């Protein structure tokens, strides 16, 4: 096999100045490893933050990229030819990631992708849906018939969470910041849209729940929104936080109100789950995609690997609201 192609960075900084497309020697597989020919790999905001140096524990030089879909081409004979998908909090950070023509993975991480979605669609699932699953299913233990508030319903994790909550049998409220975003969350299946530009969050939630409040909040925004979100919870309600804006990493809330209402607060970090652990969650998500119980993102824009730096800059500058995917061997 010829040398592999990979986007690399040797120092932290802006994607334009630090990313380079290079050729690397063909990897030498160790026992228990396979080589995946990457067909598609999405670019997530965390990938950009990794280049900028605001993520923890990244070792350099490094090939970035968490999410991927491709085909096993070397390693365990019984796995060769298997179409796979995956993501991980280790790949792209402490081991080379998916923004390359090929990716070395442990055999235990290999998960067949859903047969009814394309490579490009499969490459958009990882970070978004695993974070939503960890938040709603594992942390909050969402139950059928409960009511969920998704703060940041237009984001990737927010839209995934809306679908997972509806599959679970919950009623879902989702927030937007402008009227033009209504259609984005409505297509995800949300029951009630709250426009934070014109509505008070707590008043709108109480009106939508008959004064009861919600059972679960997934706050994808963080900062001051967390305190506002806590006010919307019913007694013994659960709030899951997954993000902290750089300028609002520290917040305050009414501790007396917190314990009197017996609220629960959870933090979820998908980076704490390596590619093998994420594979176990994808195995649970697989049948949901194969039965169309949940659906992959629709707004996807693709770039060839050689256009990766341009794509990174678009994610960095938020000049494209679609999910950006690098196509490497298609």
UniProtKB/TrEMBL annotation:
Coiled coil: none annotated. Residues 16-326 form the Enoyl reductase (ER) domain. It comes from the Bacteria. It comes from Okeania hirsuta. The keyword Oxidoreductase does not apply. This is Zinc-binding alcohol dehydrogenase family protein. GO terms for molecular function: oxidoreductase activity. Keywords: NADP. It holds the Pfam family ADH_zinc_N.
